[in-house]
Amino acid sequence: MKMRLFVGIALSPAVTEELKRLTAKLRRADDKLRWSSPDSWHITLQFLGSTERDRYECLLARLHEIHRPPLSIRLDAPGIFERAGIIQIGIHPSENLTALERHVVAASALCGVEPEKRPYHPHITLARSKDREGSDSLASLNRRLHSRKTLPHFTAEEFLLYESIPTPSGSRYEVRERFFLRV
Hints:
five-stranded antiparallel beta sheet, 30% helix, 36% strand, globular
């Protein structure tokens, strides 16, 4: 049985509530954007892709070997990845966050997972453009984003192995394993 997996960091309840308020202000009924559910908001450390059971077991073992301290996560201002058609909240790439990402990538490489070729750019995806009309909505939304206030920060005390389960309304994410960050 194959599972579609990724490693990420869950948001704190306070951050989730603040992002709910933000998206409620930004969202328009006719904006032609597919808004992400708050249940799906996370910070990806590494996408692992379709994974067989033996690789899954290897990943569990290797990820449990990572020993890193809890890390402060600072959210940056909302923005847009124009090429990808994504409204996102940037995450400040602190030294501790990028070190955790490198450890996750190194651990998964031991299980045969190919590392991403693009540089790591941590973010939270809030919405995606559905089509060309959605791209026009992104441009309109981009003009309203620049006046947004600073968002809260939080301390991540764990990272998670998620399974992405496709549904007609978009993917649903289930936590498969927790990996605690300790000093």
